[in-house]
Amino acid sequence: MRKGLAAAPFLLLAIFPTVGSGGTVSLTCSYDQTFDVKTRVTAPTTGEFSVEIQFIEEQVTGIKLNQGGWCNKHDAFVSEMEISFPCAIDLAGQRLTFSFTFNRLNGAVEQRFFIGSKLRLIRYGTCIVAERLFQDGPSEVVSSRGL
Predict the structure, then answer these.
(1) 73, 63 in Cβ contact below 8 A?
(2) Closest CA to 86 of 71, 96, 74
């Protein structure tokens, strides 16, 4: 007889809703720690951001981020477990690229910052489903239970 979780049946429930034929998921996220790749030090971090991700048939059709910069919907990846996409911003004549990975099951977010092609920082945090964040343009809010 098996013991523990291996013997217990379970159901994975996404905290971000599954968006069937289309809609928008609005997330409010907060950071709790940052890992500096060069020094290999993890430190507590504070800060928040919000993002709206628009879908049609599990394909990302739009991304709105309140941190500035632009995100590439064409390179977005969507699965039952996660959503990820790259972004960029120009700062002081240098392009800073970053990527987001959102865990659809537990709400975790990982943001990776690159300068050139080198990974510099990784921020970790959590997200919750929020009400619609941006009011410009047509969009449909998906239920606040699950992505």
Answers:
(1) yes
(2) 71
Domains of the chain: which residue ranges? 13-129
Tell me the CA distances in angstroms from 4 to 8, 12, 93, one per residue in order: 7, 17, 55
* DSSP class per residue in 2-23: --GGGTS------SSPP-SS-E
Tens of pLDDT, residue by residue over 53-97, are 888 877 889 999 887 778 999 999 888 888 999 999 888 888 889
User: Half-sphere exposure of 1 toward its Cβ, with a 13 Å CA cutoff?
Assistant: 3
Architecture of the domain made up of 13-129: Beta Barrel (2.40)
The model's pTM is 0.74
Two tokens at 105? 């099951």
Burial of residue 113, with CB atoms counted within 10 A of its CB: 0-12 exposed, 13-18 middle, 19 or more buried: middle
Cβ atoms 64, 50 nearer than 8 A: no
